[in-house]
Amino acid sequence: MKLNWFHKKNNKDQPDFWKAYVDGFEKKQKKEIHETRFVAFDTETTGFNKKEDRVLSIGAVSIKNKSIQVNNNFEIYIKQEVFNPETVKIHGILKTGDLEKISELDAIKAFLGYIKNDILIAHHAGFDYGMVNQMLLRHGLGKLKNDFIDTGVLFSKSKHIIYHENLKDHYTLDDLCKELNVSMADRHTASGDALITALVFLKTISRLDKRKVLKWDYLMKS
To answer: Which residues, in sequence order, are bridge partners of residue 39?
Structure first.
């Protein structure tokens, strides 16, 4: 009861979009894997320092019933005060240009409205998760509450089941594309990498399903 009271007391002074996001977890019900919505996402950033660098773009795709919902994708670009021209050669996003950009706060609202209380999928998820959390903290909000799955971790722990042998321990997204025969079109764009990550996730869980090990306790175990 005390924790519930503390949550309500702290939540009441927050903006409505944050309240709606948080409240979604109180009402969440556990479903079968095939009934669950997963959201694969990726960020493009000005660099790798979670506190000093900024998110330039977020891309995401929705996954349900072991398929990508192609008509339910997400892509935004964010206006920047902080900018690193050295990273443009990787992501191609200029500080100015023709891309329509929104404020960081509007980006947060849009992203939380898209992901809701669903499970997030990312490759090297700690970085993307951390960058979004820094966005939230800059606006006085809490951290992301979603469960998440790292495709690199999932594949690493599953490789002996998929291949019946131990391969290397660390996999880049490029490595997994080669291992699982996934196209690398639009690599290093947020929306492109989100789609690639979704395909890597689906191919990995498909192999696990064939071997009868696709269960919640295995999927969510780090």
So the answer is: 62, 120
